[in-house]
């Protein structure tokens, strides 16, 4: 099962310890074959909407910065519970804030 884990921006200012702990976490998940992709996201983005034959492209940002997704990890795990546990570990490393977990369907 694949899950997309996203994190919202937080007030936490990263320091060397946080970077080191995250690097260890990412290395562990990569070595276990669980982590498929990870990265930060540009808060501005581009919105593409369609209505009939008309397609409109609009530059962002669209949401308040605190409502935008700041980063993601795509993982492949055996269960929803395993995805939740990985997200709990992530939140323990980065501190207060909000994350979301969504199962990814398809091949």
From TrEMBL:
Pfam families assigned: YCII (PF03795)
Position of the signal peptide: none
Family under the similarity heading: Belongs to the YciI family.
Domain annotation YCII-related: ranges: 1-90
UniProt name for this protein: YCII-related domain-containing protein
Native source organism of the sequence: Plantactinospora soyae
SUPFAM superfamilies assigned: Dimeric alpha+beta barrel
């Amino acid at each position: 099962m694949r899950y997309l884990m996203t994190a919202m921006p937080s007030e936490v200012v990263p320091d060397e310890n946080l970077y080191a702990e995250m690097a260890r976490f990412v290395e562990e998940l990569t070595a276990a074959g669980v982590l498929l992709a990870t990265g930060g996201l540009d808060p501005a983005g581009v919105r593409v909407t369609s209505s009939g034959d008309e397609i409109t492209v609009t530059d962002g940002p669209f949401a308040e910065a605190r409502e935008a997704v700041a980063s993601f990890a795509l993982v492949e795990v055996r269960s929803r519970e395993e995805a939740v546990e990985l997200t709990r570990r992530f939140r323990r490393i980065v501190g207060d804030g909000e994350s979301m977990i969504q199962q990814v369907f398809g091949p």
